[in-house]
Automatic annotation (TrEMBL):
Family from the record: Belongs to the ABC transporter superfamily.
Top-rank taxon, per record: Bacteria
Gene Ontology MF annotations: ATP binding
Transmembrane segments: none
Keyword Glycosyltransferase assigned: no
Residues forming coiled coils: none
Annotated InterPro entries: AAA+_ATPase, ABC_ATPase_HisP-typ, ABC_transporter-like_ATP-bd, ABC_transporter-like_CS, MetN_ABC_transporter-like, P-loop_NTPase
Pfam families linked: ABC_tran
Sequence ranges assigned to domain ABC transporter in this UniProt record: 23-257
Protein name: Amino acid ABC transporter ATP-binding protein
Keywords: ATP-binding, Nucleotide-binding, Transport
């Protein structure tokens, strides 16, 4: 593991979790063809929670995250985001996608567009935001992730860490209430991991509801209020970070932690 816990900015311990439900998942199951990839997932996420999801490769972490914003379809059970039931109804999918931002391992920026254009594209074309306002919002969030001076460059001219911060800014331009992160630092060189994690910590401090798939256990200890361990398509164990790391209950969790810590 990368021990980031000492170097990361500490998130304040009193960050509030609301009683308002942000995401509710009940008995959710998903298959890829005959392969049963997610099994009876039950998960309630309250507004303001910072949840870290960990588990071995292939355990279904990405699939779970992708089901929450309907990048993947589930076949059984329910997913409700901000009170909207996720079904195959396209109207609901649009509404949920506008509430939920997503950041991937491989940034997924448009290489032929400038940083600023990457950030204004969806607000202008999907949200019909006037261009001037979209540019102002983009510059606000580029300043927030500390790279406003890169606005007119192309993604290929930026470091991996800078590109990932653009990806975060681009998501924020859609004003999401929930942010999903799928291994946002896994493709980065070690010296760039911290700058991305610090950006995520700032978001957490502002009360953003966050679900992060990550192997950065230092981040989990510093920022998460809950850590979820998945294996073979199931949520095996979940707890607040201190208990999770110091006193894991299941043998599968113990084995996983012994391999990464
Ligand atoms: P994780 O993110 O925990 O590594 P994934 O959610 O990516 O796990 O994958 C869970 C399982 O589903 C793996 O066995 C993977 O091979 C399989 N899988 C993922 N995506 C697909 C797909 N599009 N079609 C078929 N199988 C898939
Ligand atoms: Mg994955």
């Amino acid at each position: 593991m990368t021990n980031t816990s000492e170097t990361l900015a500490k998130a304040p311990a009193d960050m509030k979790v609301s009683e308002e439900v942000a995401i509710s998942i009940q008995k959710m199951n998903k298959w890829y063809g005959a392969f049963h990839v997610l099994r009876d997932i039950d998960l309630t996420v309250f507004r303001g929670e910072r949840i870290v999801i960990c588990g071995p490769s292939g355990s279904g972490k990405s699939t779970l995250i992708r089901c929450i914003n309907a990048l993947e379809e589930h076949q059984r059970g329910t997913i409700t985001v901000d009170g909207t039931l996720l079904s195959s109804d396209l109207k609901n999918i649009d509404r949920i996608r506008s509430e939920v931002g997503m950041v991937f391992q491989h940034f997924n920026l448009f290489p032929h567009l400038t940083i600023l254009e990457n950030c204004t594209l969806a607000p202008i074309w999907v949200r019909k935001t006037p261009k001037k306002e979209a540019v102002e919002t983009a510059m606000h969030f580029l300043a927030k992730v500390k790279i406003p001076e890169q606005a007119n460059k192309y993604p290929g001219q930026l470091s991996g860490g800078q590109q990932q911060r653009v990806a975060i800014a681009r998501s924020l331009c859609m004003k999401p209430r929930i942010m999903l992160f799928d291994e946002p630092t896994s493709a980065l060189d070690p010296e760039m991991i911290k700058e991305v994690l610090d950006t995520m910590i700032e978001l957490a401090e502002e009360g953003m509801t966050m679900l992060c798939v990550t192997h950065e256990m230092g981040f989990a200890q510093a920022v998460a209020n809950r850590v979820i361990f998945m294996d073979q398509g199931q949520i095996v164990e979940q707890n607040e970070p201190r208990e999770f790391f110091n006193n894991p209950k299941s043998d599968r969790t113990k084995l996983f932690l012994s391999q990464i810590l």
